[in-house]
User: Fold this.
Amino acid sequence: MTGKAKKKKKYERLEERLSQDPRTRAQYLSRMKWKMDYLSALKTAESRGRTEGKIEGKIDIMEGPAPQ
Assistant:
């Protein structure tokens, strides 16, 4: 099985699982939205010649302890 075929099968299984469970679908879509927001912020920061500020703050929020 080639890499392309493996990837296609993986996405077919994912689509099947997402179509069956609304909670799993919501979690997946939420993660994808966060990932796209993060990548957009990263691209913006890199185009301005820096990798700080908004991106690091977002990472701190996602990985750090809950704010008090």
